[in-house]
Amino acid sequence: MGFLMSKSMDENMKKQQEFMLHNSRLQLERQIIMQNQMRERQMAMQIAWSREFLKYYGAFFSLATLGLTVGAIKRQKPGLFVPVVPLSFIMAYQMDMAYGTLVSRMKGEAENIMVGESERLDLPHGTPTFESIENVRRAKSPLSSILK
Fold first, then answer.
1. pTM of the model as a whole
2. d(CA 146, CA 148)
3. How far is the CA of 102 from the CAs of 74, 109, 110, 124, in angstroms?
4. Name one GO cellular component term (predicted).
5. Over the stretch 22-72, which tens digit does the pLDDT of each residue have?
6. 95: closest CA among 49, 57, 65, 54?
7. What residue spans define the domains of the chain?
8. Contact assessment for residue 90 and residue 57, using Cβ atoms and an 8 Å cutoff
């Protein structure tokens, strides 16, 4: 009788472990999907910010270029046109970020770094472990001095 009960309990425990494993897998999948959606939303906001900034910067760049060009021609001083050069680099960068392939190129470079230069991504003192976090928590806990 005890053997049958033990066998039944073992089966129930095995089913419960499988159920718990299935649930933890579902939870992990949901977390991955949620984190990816948050990442996509943040990237969309960054691109939208770049597009909005480009509108304002484009207006400033146009006015500055027009004013500096007119000033250089009227005063016959080509040196007044010099600030347009660095401003145009900023304008090109913003256009590339807002509507170009900058994000794609950055993604490709990040993938290259992850594959070819992964040692650059290591954290100081390595990846935190449960034990290292727990040691810091215990050291900072007011109860730790009492329990020692």
1. 0.69
2. 6
3. 38, 10, 12, 30
4. plasma membrane
5. 999 999 999 999 999 999 999 999 999 999 999 999 999 999 999 999 999
6. 54
7. 42-100
8. yes
Which pair of structure tokens corresponds to residue 104?
Answer: 């794609």
Give the N- to C-terminal CA distance of the chain in Å, as an integer: 49
- Over pLDDT 90: what percentage of the chain? 72
Tokens of 78: 């080509």
Q: Token pair of 98, please?
A: 């807002």
Scan for tokens 């009227």, then name that residue.
74
- Judge contact between 96 and 63, C-beta under 8 A: no
Neighbours of 88 (CB within 10 A): 12
Percentage helix, strand, coil for the chain under 3-state DSSP, each rounded to 5? 90, 0, 10
